[in-house]
Amino acid sequence: MVLLASIPIIALIICAAFVLTRALEANASFSQVKTLISNSLDQVGDLVHRLQTERGTTVLYLSTQGDPSILEKLEAAYHDTDEEIKNITHWRHINLSQPENEPFYYFETKETFQTHIHTYRQNLSNKYVDLPEPIPYYSEAIERIIEWFWEDFSKYETGKKWATLVAYQMIILGKEQLGVERALGGKFYAEGGYEDFNDYLSYVNRSIKGATFLEESILFSKDVEEFYNKNAFENNLFHEILNMRSEIIKNNYTFLEPSVSKGSHWFENMTDYIDLLLQIQYHLTDIINDQLEEEISSRQREVIFASLLVIITFAVSPFILQRIGRQTRQIEHIASSLNLKTMQLNEEKRRADKLLYQMLPYEIAESLKTSWDVAAEAFEEATIFFSDVVNFTNLCAECSPMQVSSINFIATFDRTDLGSTVPLQKV
Questions:
Q1: How far apart are CA 403 and CA 278, in angstroms?
Q2: N or C terminus of the chain with fewer C-beta within 10 Å?
Q3: Confidence band (pLDDT; 50, 70, 90) for 426?
Q4: Angle between helices 134-153 and 110-125 (to 10 degrees)
Q5: pTM of the model
């Protein structure tokens, strides 16, 4: 009995241990995901922003033929980028044995990436003839980092919280498009228009994509919409950018003169606008970090609950088994006593039947055992005659014990003449 009862208890212990194991694994896995996302939000996001600024400043510097004022801004951008690279504590390593990662060899370590950036800067400073175009050079690295953002975010899928991550991703993508638009717009003013139609198409493409990503971010997060509407129209910045965009779209380069000041003014306006999006990015970062902390707390509560379940199961199981064992012994004792009483009762029944069979014929005795009513039968000879007085039971119920004992049935039978014909023994 105890063995049978222990089976569900053992099953409960196994289930509790399984729940605890799953909770621990889920908590550990999510902690790793949280670390990846937090690093991406806090560190890598700032690195992308600095690289975008350095890219745009580099384009403006080349478009102005090395203007000293732009060079000063470029050197400041170099410094900011280097500081952000140093601040990264978790560098995303790549497997260079995979063919798709071969073009991104410079991401192998943080040092190789710094070397990659510094080499381009050095070639720019030395006016290297075959210097790659800055937009594709920087954009390749930036877009790869943004892909890593998405890979990390895709590991965390929990409804509305996941939607906030998508909104953050859209802001990052929108800033990237606006960053290229900033660089191409600065080139437009610094060179006096687009003589190459491909530059014009590229600008229009980037401008439209940037606006589209921003609209999608607003769709995924009301926080983005509220923050954007609150801060974007506080001054004339946005309207001034719209006017300059309209001028770039017209592309009347035959009537424009190269202007370093207008190129710098455009660059500063777009930088302020992108910095506004950076503030939205930081705002979403705080929201996502709060959501991650809430999720961590929830998973920790699950671990605590599972641990308590295991502890309670182990603590209660011996008590339950002890109670079952005690009740089992009591049941066995009662069953043994009942068996003994049954044997004694059967023995008494056997003795009573034996006595009854000695007093009555077998058929009469069996009839009396099964029913109180026995049909009258005639016998030519009888050893014993049983009779009853009509309503004697009711009569006795109405009399006192002394009255019942005073009724003299023997005398009544003596006055009959039965004894003269049949030998009669009265009992």
A1: 118
A2: C
A3: low
A4: 160
A5: 0.64
